[in-house]
Amino acid sequence: MHQPRSRTSHLSVGSRPHSRPKRLGALAAGLAVVVLTAGACGSSGGATSSSSVPESSSASGAGGGDTSSSVPKSSAGGAAGSGGGGGGVAIAGHTVTMDAAVAATVPASVRQKGALVDITYNNVPPDAAVVDGKLVGWEVEIGQAVATVLGLEWQPTASGAFDSFIPGLQNGRYNVSFTSLIQTPDRLKQIDVVTFFNVGTGFAVKKGSSISIKAPTDVCGHSVAVISGSAFIDQLKGIDCAGKAKIDVQSFPSDSASELAVSSGRAEIYATSSNQLAYLIKQTNGQFEQQPLDYMPVAEGAGVTKGSGLSKPIADAVDVLIKNGTYAAIMKKWSITSGLVEKASVYSK
């Protein structure tokens, strides 16, 4: 997983459309899931209100499970604007419409349901974040555009329980997760991954720290905060620290909790997607310093329920967006200038 509020039992968001929401690290008191209504992606559907549902503190995958609920189909149709192959949706200055040829490849079972039912992380800007009750970000807009190309409704749910995403795809509660998933051998045993972006793992330290990370072994002997269930954990454990102290990998239920661990001195280094670090530093007024190392650049994208038959149609829909310029326009809107691809790829086992 790679990118995007005060958190007690409910989610609060920042006051500016593209500001990084406030992070107080109070996730232990309870995460929140935001059920998003029409226009939640910040496109032509217009803004509507959203409601938050408290989750138990075990929502990150251990015990009570994820209590999120998806958008009712009737409320999502306006956001997607493509349930019956009708008018287009305005995204990043482009009008996205259904592509009949690609839409025809959507499996009958999904066509009958009529929607891409998505679970997205709620706090990884600029990829995805809930701001003023709306789910926004470049990956959210890619997801909505893909749904439109496929002639499907876009039904996103924003959640902080990242550990529940893959189980949710496996049990059919969701059929996609546009949430910056890296393809790894273990993940591909559980889900398919359709990639449309390349990103490395970046490292940040608290401003004024003497730590310098130019090579992977520079992380050795230090404590590193990462989000639970992320591919960063395996990457860090794979670093050969021969002759040096081992890396102390500390996992937290959210990116904001990981950041708080570093800013408070509990951990020395914060590891996440390199593109998200630049955004973090900008939005926190330089409280962190990004390090030079961009470790193990890999392809990332959307998780898809294995065996659903959706993986290739989604990849083909992304290719449509690449060819017509919508993909590049979305990335430019969110200041993503590197890591763009010329073609989507499907990873499956």
Q: Describe it for me?
A:
The structure is a single chain. The chain has 349 residues and is α+β, with helices and mostly antiparallel strands. The chain is globular and about 55 Å long. Strands 10, 11, 12, 13, 14, 15 and 16 form a seven-stranded mixed β-sheet that branches. Strands 2-1-9-5 form a four-stranded mixed β-sheet. The chain has a three-stranded antiparallel β-sheet with strand order 6-7-8. It is built from eleven helices and 16 strands.
Top CATH class of the largest domain: Alpha Beta
Low-confidence stretches are 1-85
Helical percentage = 10-25%
Based on Cα principal axes, name the global outline.
Answer: globular
Distance between the termini: 19 Å
Secondary structure: number of strands: 16
In the CATH hierarchy, the architecture of the largest domain is: 3-Layer(aba) Sandwich
- Name the beta content range: 25-35%
Give a brief rundown of this model.
The protein has 11 helices and 16 strands. By secondary structure, it is α+β, with helices and mostly antiparallel strands. Strands 10, 11, 12, 13, 14, 15 and 16 form a 7-stranded mixed sheet that branches. It has a 4-stranded mixed sheet with strand order 2-1-9-5.
